[in-house]
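SAMPLE LOG
Freezer: B-3
Tube label: C17
Construct: single chain, 80 aa
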Amino acid sequence: MHGYPKHVYIKLIKYANWILSLAALIFLGSILIAYPYAEHFHLPVQITAHILVMVLAGVIKVALVVRMVAQKGINESCAG
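STRUCTURE (predicted):
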């Protein structure tokens, strides 16, 4: 790693966790709107839900990678 202080990685994990939580909630809501309860929503809402499912899958993947990088940084800052 680049030798950043441990508190930087801890802050990064907090942001990543927050983004993961928010994205997961919206993702689950979008899945519910897009599939089992689609008949209760207008077409533009359904289209938005389908788009959000794809976009939020990418957001979740990026947030997980950021979280893993921060965890590695914390482990390396503790070891060295």
